[in-house]
Structure formats: C-alpha cells, structure tokens
Amino acid sequence: MRILITGGAGFIGCNLADAYVRGGHQVTIFDNLSRRGSDANLAWLRASFGEQGFRFIQGDIRDYPTILRAAAGQEAIYHLAAQTAVTTSVADPRTDFEINAFGTFNVLEAARNAGHDPIFIFASTNKVYGGMDDAPAQELATRYILPDYPDGVSEARPLDFHSPYGTSKGAADQYVRDYARIYGLRSVVFRQSCIYGQRQMGVEDQGWVAWFVIAALTGQPIIIYGNGKQVRDLLHVDDLIRAFQAATDRIALTAGQVYNLGGGPANTLSIWAEFGPLLSEMVGRSVTPAAWRDWRPGDQPVFVADVSKATREFGWAPQVGVREGIGRLFEWVRNNRHLFA
Predict the structure, then answer these.
(1) Total domain count for the chain?
(2) 3, β-bridge pairs
(3) Cβ neighbourhood burial of 26 (10 Å; 0-12, 13-18, 19+)
(4) Three-state SS for 202?
(5) Which long-range contacts (CB under 8 A, 24 or more apart) does 48-54 make?
(6) Residue 38, class by beta-carbon neighbours within 10 Å (0-12 exposed, 13-18 middle, 19+ buried)?
(7) Which residues are catalytic?
C-alpha cells in the first residue's frame, strides 16, 4: 500500500512509519522538521531502513501545492501534523489555527484530489470535549474521579471546544467528518487521549509523561500545573499504531466514524500524586517538583476514554499496561540521553 504520513518525523509519525516500512509498504513522510526531535527521528528511520527505505518530503501542510503533490496516488493518508500545545495556542492563536484548521483543510483537499480514493486517518484530541464542567469531578486522596462516567467518556459526549487549541483541532475534527458525509472520503477520526512511548521528545508544554521522565533523568526542573491530581488515561504508542492499522484494515466499517482512543479505565494515573511516586521508584531517588503553578486553561480534572466502540467495531483494545509502558519509555530515555543534552 502507498502511504503518506504528515508529521511523519514526529513522535507518533515515526513509530507509524517504522511499522509500515517494516511491513513492506511504500511510505512517504511529509514533515517540516520544526518540532524538537524530528531531525533525530528522521535520522533514526534512515539508519534503520536506509535512504531508499522510504520517501521523505520536507514541506508544510499550510502550503497546498506541496501537500497536493505529496498526496497524489496515495492509498492511505495519516494526518498527524499539528500544533500540539494548549499553551502555545493561547500565546499564538493565529499560527495554531493556520496549522491545525487550515492545514487540515489543505490535507483534506489534497486527499479529495489525490486520484485513488485514499483512506484518511486523522489524529484528533480529547480536548474537543472541553472542560466538561457539567460533569463535576470528585476529589480523592490522590486523584479526581468522574462519578458520572465510570466507564470513561464515549463519543456521544457533546463537543465543547475550549482554548484555541481545542477549537482549531475541533474544527479540523468536524471537517474530517464532513468530508466523509459530503464527498465520500473514507475518513476516520481518532480523538486521542494521552499517548506516550519511545521516541517521544516531551517538553513542558506537551507530552507530559515523557517530559517528566526526561526531566528526572537529566536533572531538569519539573513544574506541576494544578494540584497534580488530574487524571489521564495513558495509551502506549504501540497500541495506538495497532489501532491505526486495524481501522485501516476494516475501513468498510470504520469509514466516517469517530473513535475515542486512550488507555481506558484500566490504564489511568494522576499526573503527579500517583505518577510522582512511580517515577521516584524508577529513578531510585525522590523526585519532587521544583514549583507548583495555577491550572492551565481548559485543563480537565479527569479525562478517561471509553474505548468500547473501537473494541466493538474493529476489535481493538489496549494491551500495554501503564507500568509496563512507562518502564519501556524510561529505559528508552535512559539509553538515549544524548538526545536530550
């Protein structure tokens, strides 16, 4: 299969590219290499497969002629390129909109005109559900819970965009859905929760699991926003790649659908009250925050995805448990400290 991955040198993109190149597919990576670590991820793929193992196009999704040429003849397009930080979107909402909303529109138009009716997989976000203020969280000793959602949040939850990032990704999310309805594009939307794993070059504003591990191992300060009891369901990147592949393989059932993807109720942690002790255990010493700050805009006290629709419709469920997955990430960071010097 001929595959285009936008943001293919990013964390998720390079793992997806690795899986598909290993599977014998013809992969094109499209990336502007602006993200921290993207050069290193591209170098890793080249070291793994050689210059001829895949095609690389350095380009920007805001440039329609370039993405149109890249999409020509592709059988599947995985649209992962994005501006990913809420804080960045607040500081610079115009660029956030141009990348996430307008950029996605460009990729959709390129797919519509690609000539081979490509499958279109879009990485959306749980931020499209907003702060969920109508579902009050209950505070326990080390975490918040949502009594109204014991099995997690399903796709039936009303959308409520909050923050420029949530709004730009939400607009893109709805465009992808509508291109299935209006143009018959075989598109699938994945509203992703907290994704983590190897080759995640986390920073303070985005990729908190990897960032805490990196900071603990390299002696950088950790700042906690909120009280540290915010709960997320964690999904290892290997499980996410399996979901992408399974939804693609069963596109006759998944086309036009939206799925919440996360670790589900079995794979949750509070961001510091529970993750902090686990991190200290792995490092072998007490790891403490350098500072505590106010809550960030749009930060949900709890988000846990109900993944039962994905299980029911294309047979997917998380397989990598939180402790195992974080252990894998910890070992990868420890063995690749040179990437974070």
Answers:
(1) 1
(2) 27, 76
(3) middle
(4) coil
(5) 48/18, 48/21, 49/21, 53/21, 54/17, 54/21, 54/26, 54/27, 54/28, 54/29
(6) buried
(7) 165
Q: Give the dihedral sign, CA 8/61/122/1.
A: negative
pLDDT in the model for residue 304: 97
DSSP classification of residue 339: G
What's the average pLDDT block by block, 10 residues per block, for the chain (341 residues)? 98 98 98 94 96 95 98 97 92 97 98 93 95 92 96 96 94 98 98 97 90 96 96 98 98 98 97 97 96 86 96 98 97 94 76
d(CA 227, CA 136): 16
Residues near 25 by Cβ (< 8 Å), separated by ≥ 6? 1, 2, 3
- Domain harbouring 264, CATH code: 3.40.50.720
- 194, two tokens: 């907290």
Structural domain including 147 reads 2-340
User: What's the DSSP call for residue 31?
Assistant: E
- Cβ neighbours for 26, distance < 8 A, ≥ 6 positions apart: 1, 2, 3, 54, 55
d(CA 178, CA 60): 23
Q: Is beta strand 76-79 parallel, antiparallel or unpaired with respect to 26-31? A: unpaired
CB-based contact 301:268 (threshold 8 Å): no
